[in-house]
Write a structure and sequence with these properties.
The chain is α+β, with helices and mostly antiparallel strands. The chain contains 18 helices and 21 strands. InterPro entries: BBE (IPR012951), FAD-bd_PCMH (IPR016166), FAD-bd_PCMH-like_sf (IPR036318), FAD-bd_PCMH_sub2 (IPR016169), FAD-linked_Oxidoreductases_BP (IPR050432), Oxid_FAD_bind_N (IPR006094).
Amino acid sequence: MQFPLDIANIASTWNQFMALMLDANVTSNLVPSVNWDTLNSSVSGRLFQYAPFARACFEDAEGVVGTYDANACAFAQAHYSDGQYRDTIPSSYQGLQWETCPSKGESCLLDWTNPLNEAAFDAPKTCHQGSIPTYFLEVQTATDVQNAFKFSVETGVNLVVKNTGHEFQGRSARPGSLALWTKNLQKIEYEPAWIPTGCEDTAPRTVVRLGPGITFSDLYAFGEANNITLPGGSTPSVSATGGYVLGGGHGSLSNTAGLGTDRALEFTIVVPTGDVLTANACQNTDLYFALRGGGGGTFGVVMETVTLALPRTPIHVITLDGLSSDANTTKAFWKVLVDNSREWANAGWGGVAGATSLQYINPLPITEEEARTSMQPLTEFAAQLNLTVGQEQYDSFALFYQQVLEPLYAISGFPLSTVSRLLPAKNFETSTSRDELLEALLNASANHSLTYVFATTPYAYKADNLTSLTPAWRDSLLLIEVLDTLEYNATASEQKAVIEGLSKSMDYLRNVTPDSGTYFSESDLYEPEFENSFWGANYERLAEIKLKYDPLHILDCWHCVGWKGRSDEAYSCYP
């Protein structure tokens, strides 16, 4: 049962493909004890069931809507790793393991390394809903969210908040749940002289008002069209607000422009008590603090975010490619990074490196010669290997993104586990501490699929001290992420072994940075002492805020503020 990926011969259009995946009839018997019709009526018929992305490829299915269809299967195979298609489908997750329930051996996946591999879907393979929510509510208004909260209290049905599905922790996936799907909240408006609501004495600022469905691809194009810079992340299909901002949000401009959470100036949110609130530096300041780094999916549903816009400026770009992946070369390369990270951060540089390449950018008003001089240690290292450091200048960050980054990061949709750690500046102070840090980094990365060295902390940025993420972000120079991919058919025990292996490796860096922390959104699934790692001394205050705005604990998610814990039935599918 193999279908060729010849898109020209696929009769099924995207809309037909979607139609095969959803069922608007809410009288399904998947949760027979709950009257879903009542909720559907209250939200103008926008309650749907969605099948897993690969549903059409399976002749055998249990507990899912949709049908087997060869043309629709071919379409799914062709778009299996296309992040921008995936984020339009409510039941699609960019981390494929969150579409499964490994503890029960239930899934509906194709082989992400080869979607044509018929062993993944031929009988006796059966398509199951896995951890994909039972129903999705397409949120259009605050009233929709209020009705969903009321429904959850009355029925006991768990709620999750789902946007584009980019995450490592499965926080927007849960079997038997109702997902509040915010992707279609597509508002984007430019306001050149904005004053926060209730802050009449505040000087006006240039901002953009965003709905949670706006992605980075949308954001950068809008910024370029309006002659402004809107910093953000690299993956085009990630929401530019949503969990990115609520959990921190880093990118290549973060060193000088701050994190996504730093630039968020106002939120409109529906909290679980049913209130629709505006949170900024002048009103509901406790909630404003919580939303700026306290994590998504737990304090309410954000309907709109106001984010700071910066002037459109040229950027310098430095690149190095083609390094050998042998251990000696990697050690020498990363030594250059460790030895020079403080100087480069102070000079305005930010970006990312791996084992074989580097890409840094600088938005400060420096000359090409000044850029070249500040990166001289990298140039000298490359020359020893007969390699050349590339240097370019782009008229804006958006143009650089569209021409360079967007094509590189468009691929998505594969099972991936990660661990991470922030590396404080004090570990870079002496040659001895730098050598110790380098050795720990090499040990942490050994025998894993990928390691990213992110120079994306807000080290050179002057923060306003109204954010709730761990203070470790402020005095760290690098964020390290180590990742491993999973097989599409990995069992619960195999997934657990991968996660535990990553966690054990990250202990090398944890041991030399005992007072540091990590990034809420891209962290170890088994992060030890997660409250301290994600929020540090801010956690106690966050827990109080959570209780104030969600006293019935309607919203809960893995390693979030006020988490119920692993023993809760909601997390039965976690490995």
